[in-house]
Design a protein that fits this description.
Helix content is 52%, strand content 5%. The chain has 326 residues and is mostly helical. Among the domains are: 71 residues, Arc Repressor Mutant, subunit A; 103 residues, Arc Repressor Mutant, subunit A. The protein has a 3-stranded antiparallel beta sheet with strand order 1-3-2. Helix 8 runs parallel beside helix 11. The longest helix has 21 residues.
Length: 326
């Protein structure tokens, strides 16, 4: 396998999806720190494969000391432990209201001046922060809820679904682990989201501990609010399937039923064949929903039962630009 070409094409596809998410519903989500965040997750994933820090540093083209320093810098702001710099700066401006540039620099004196300037610029460009003046005379104010061009109720419901998804995939999971995984959430907001999930029984918590788990995750097929969680769950399913399929040794019996297949049909949607293609996903959803209901109701399912992950996706694409007209 030409892994280099495959990785390059995979990054292209992921970038297309991230771009769509970042502009969903006329939003303009901050993406300036994506390269650093990707490096942070990639480095941790490589180390999770059992590779040494020295080997991962070599793969990233860095000396071991540079690699370690970069991970430390990305893990949290030097001035505000537990947060990335842009998260800490935005929270500071949100709490303070109108704030002079000199006050921001004093608050984040331990962080690099150029990096701090970049973060402020990106926050302004994203519309999350307003600025008057320039240079040392700049004054900043975080945008208030009514000034953001976003449906904040929708964002809250979307965050709730993402937390539910994290608990289902990672549980039992601690409050601290959820905070580390969802670093863009403030602690108070995460606590409120967990209380809502606990209140309607979607998750449970170990008595006396902040350890959360759930046995079931059901995201509706098409409502607006859980859309982000559904997208993350789809990508998790596809990537998990591919990752496990790649790791199985030849001759492993699991190879016979693990993996994925992609089919492309060229049909006229207004014909019986087209109608059959359009009915495919609803039919599969119905069959899989019935199978899941049977599994949930089975009295013989042990608490540590194996999870069998199934992903189905259907879409219609326009003709290729170079394709002849029918």
């Amino acid at each position: 396998m030409d892994t280099r070409l495959a990785i390059d094409q995979l990054l292209y596809e992921v970038a297309q999806l991230v771009a769509r998410l970042a502009t969903l519903g006329h939003a303009r989500s901050l993406v300036a720190d994506l390269p650093d965040r990707f490096f942070f997750h990639l480095a941790n994933a490589l180390e999770g494969q059992g590779l040494s820090k020295k080997l991962v540093a070599d793969m990233c083209g860095l000396a071991l000391r540079s690699y370690q320093k970069r991970l430390q810098r990305l893990a949290e702001s030097r001035s505000d432990a537990g947060r990335t710099l842009w998260e800490a700066v935005f929270a500071f401006l949100h709490e303070r209201g109108v704030t002079k540039r000199s006050e921001v620099e004093r608050r984040f004196a331990k962080d690099d001046d150029q990096v701090l300037g970049s973060v402020l610029h990106d926050l302004v460009e994203s519309g999350l922060v307003f600025r008057t003046g320039s240079g040392a005379n700049s004054v900043y104010r975080a945008a208030r809820e009514g000034e953001l061009d976003q449906d904040l109720g929708f964002l809250d419901e979307s965050a709730e679904a993402l937390i539910w998804l994290s608990i289902y995939r990672r549980g039992p999971v601690s409050f601290e682990a959820l905070m580390a995984h969802h670093r863009g959430l403030e602690e108070a907001r995460l606590e409120a989201l967990l209380e809502r999930l606990l209140g309607d029984g979607r998750i449970t918590a170990t008595p006396g501990e902040r350890l959360y788990r759930c046995r079931q995750l059901v995201l509706p097929a098409d409502p607006r609010a859980p859309g982000a969680a559904a997208i993350v769950d789809h990508v998790h399913a596809v990537f998990s399937t591919l990752g496990i399929a790649l790791s199985l040794p030849p001759g492993d019996p699991q190879k016979a039923w693990t993996g994925g297949s992609t089919y492309t049909f060229e049909v006229d949607l207004d014909t019986p064949l087209g109608a059959e293609a359009q009915a495919l996903l609803p039919r599969l959803r119905s069959e899989l929903t019935a199978l899941r209901a049977s599994a949930d109701a089975s009295p013989t399912t042990p608490p540590d039962a194996t999870r069998v992950l199934v992903y189905c996706g259907v879409t219609a694409l326009p003709p290729h630009p170079g394709d002849p007209s029918p």
